[in-house]
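Rotation project, supervised by the postdoc (A.L.). Task for the rotation student: set up a whole-complex structure prediction and record inputs and outputs verbatim in this book. Inputs entered:
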Amino acid sequence: MFDASRPMQGRSWKGVSFGQAQFHRLSALITLVLLIIGFGFANQAFFSVNNGLTVLLQTSVIGLLGIGMTMVIITGGIDLSVGSVLALSGVITAMSVKAGLPVAPAMLVGVVAGALCGAFNGFVITRLRIPPFVATLGMMLIARGLALQLTGARPISQLGEAFGVLGNGALFRVVEMQANGFPKVIFPGIPYPAILMFAMAIAAAYLLNRRQVGRHIYATGSNEEAARLSGVRTNRTKLFAYTMSGALAGIAGNVLMSRLVTAQPSEGVMYELDAIAAAVIGGASLSGGVGTISGTMIGAFIIGILRNGLNMAGVSAFIQQIVIGFVVIGAVWIDQVRSRKSD
Amino acid sequence: MSRTPLVDMIGIEKHFGGVRAVDHVSVDLYPGEVVGLLGHNGAGKSCLMKILAGAMVPNEGEIRVDGKTVHFAEPNDARAAGVETIYQTLALSDHLDAPANLFLGRELKTRFGNLDDARMLREAREVLARLNPNFKNLRDPVSSLSGGQRQVIAIARAIYFDTKILIMDEPTAALGPSETAMVADLILKLRDEGIGIFLVSHDMHDVFDLCDRVVVMNKGRVVGAHPINEVTKDDVLSLIIKGELPADWSAKNLEPTD
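Outputs recorded:
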């Protein structure tokens, strides 16, 4: 499974069950391509550069959450709190800005707050021995409640132009001044959120595949007691995974609030389910030990493109929920079939 | 024997609620010695071995390794003291491959702290080939390997590192006859290298073939500890089942041969 001669994601999987995981990821990739082709035929505008970048932008929040979720799921856990932590973290960044902190350190404060929420999850799970589902469900309520209480349930706006750069800026943006004095956008640029997501994905894949802590994350999820007996500090490993998940939720929160240039304490409801869906569609197993960042990225893009394509096709938001609901069930069903086979 | 024992476990106690799983047990182990640990399921032998392996912390008692008192709070501490364990469950991570399992918890790293998978694969290939020349599919997750191959990984993991004390919990339970013979050879070879071995087994045959001494546990207590040439299989069975020697017992090796 871990091939040193290949970097990051292009690993060779030869074993039976990993052949299945490989197959799962491949089928997710094929689904993604089919979706793109299908929506492309349905609507000419789908293939435009602008729409492609919109999809990148829309997917980046799910993608960021999905990266952390994947680490947690590989340890055999689940993190239901990321949507709420995202909101809390964005709110704390906005409050820091309001308190006079420059934007960059304020965002750091927000991300640290997210990491602390994650660490609290990890603490409750490893020390108090509360199942991850319950522990993070608690945090989901705590973080949401905190975000609402701190803001009095009112959005924080007028945060200044600098606050919006992370969410709305883009790299390689090419703008040309026209003769009539109006600027013309030649290439809108790659949105910062997408760059951030890919950077985090590469960092997380590196962590999971090339570092000891990543190996231990897989070992812990594969068989926790065996890992412990083999000298893996499973509690520390899980604490790490949940802290990472919290920090990534914090980053996602800052991206989202920055995009809106407003901190919304009620933002991000049910995002945890999108993140879980992205990981599971990408081949992560809820029983632990299996999952890849590249798979989760594919899963996030399937959800993002599905939303985008359905939007463009004029499908109502209600129908979209129904469709995505079926996709999630389908993905988990595939996961179940797969783990039944490999038993 | 006047030498310092390799392991000296003194007055070990472990309770779970009101249940005394290990009740004031003392055992010792000398270098180059194989001690068989026998008893019913639930007699406390696995529990005792987990305490020595650092997987369980005793409520009371003292462990000395090479005469020095040690405290094992987690398996890493025991490993650092040279105590290696082959668990009955093998304690393998099913989704990882053989090298990853062999080095789990003490991965080899490159200069930059990255996992050195190439070197781990090389080393694993070498040590596994010594135990089983047919072991070729090293990159497969261990869940897809045969019981024998999995056992070989668990054994390789215990002897690859600087081992002084080896705990083997039912090492041959999953093995066929030829592999069992291989493990028996290995035990004797390790013994000759001066490693002390605790062999937990139900197989009376193995015990009498391999062990220098037997310790029998019953209901958390040690009910008998004898050099192997002092007892018969029936004597040991009686200890296991009744918790005492046959009424007319006398040391076998001291009996007049008439």
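Student's summary: Chain B touches chain A through 38 residues (CB under 8 Å).
Supervisor addendum: The longest strand of chain B covers residues 19-29.
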